[in-house]
Amino acid sequence: MNNTYEAVWKTLSNIDVSEHIERKMNLSYLSWAWAWGTLMKHYPSANYKFNTWERESRVYDVMYYPDGSASVECIITIGELHRTMWLPVMDNRNNSISNPSSRQISDTKMRCLVKCMAMWGLGHYIYAGEDVPQEKPKGLSVQHQEQRAKERANA
């Protein structure tokens, strides 16, 4: 399969993820498991990895900053194409955490994975503060789209 950035973006950005959006503290999220499953349906050879950094002669899957806070970086590869995204380890108020636990780092890695998928188009509109894509997804009737819009407005 000969993928281009444009073709991948066109495919993934037209997927309506609105039924899979989860909300916490007035923020919208996608489940990493659902998002990865959706990506794999379209690009089964895709893979991801998290960057590592050396610190005090040890290798970590998180970059530490002088104030003790940290961030992770994810790379998704589809064929010969690559996209990278980063995310700080944060608390539920989106404030950086000093000396994060392994659980906080693990959770951030999976959030970063989903954010990196958005760089390919999947659910990108969530990060723009929107709940639905600008273009209407193919395969949904106008009536179905209008009904979903009404349901979201009443939620």
Can you walk through the features of this model?
- The chain has 155 residues and is α+β, with helices and mostly antiparallel strands.
- It has one domain (5-154): Enolase-like, domain 1 (2-Layer Sandwich), CATH 3.30.390.
- Helix content is 33%, strand content 24%.
- Strands 3, 6, 7 and 8 form a four-stranded antiparallel sheet that branches.
- The termini are far apart.
CATH topology title: Enolase-like, domain 1
> What CATH architecture label applies?
2-Layer Sandwich
Work out the count of structural domains.
1
- Count of alpha/pi helices: 4
Percent of residues in helices comes to 25-40%
In CATH, what is the class? Answer: Alpha Beta
Q: What is the residue-mean pLDDT, rounded to a whole number?
A: 86
List keywords for this structure.
155 residues, alpha+beta, Enolase-like, domain 1, four-stranded antiparallel β-sheet, two-stranded antiparallel sheet, 8 strands, 33% helix, globular
Summary of the model, kept short:
This protein has 155 residues and is α+β, with helices and mostly antiparallel strands.
Fold blueprint:
Blueprint: H1 5-13, E1 21-24, E2 27-30, H2 32-42, E3 47-50, E4 53-55, E5 58-60, E6 63-64, E7 70-78, E8 81-88, H3 102-119, H4 142-154
Antiparallel strand pairs: 1-2, 3-7, 4-5, 6-7, 7-8
Helix pairs in contact: 2-3
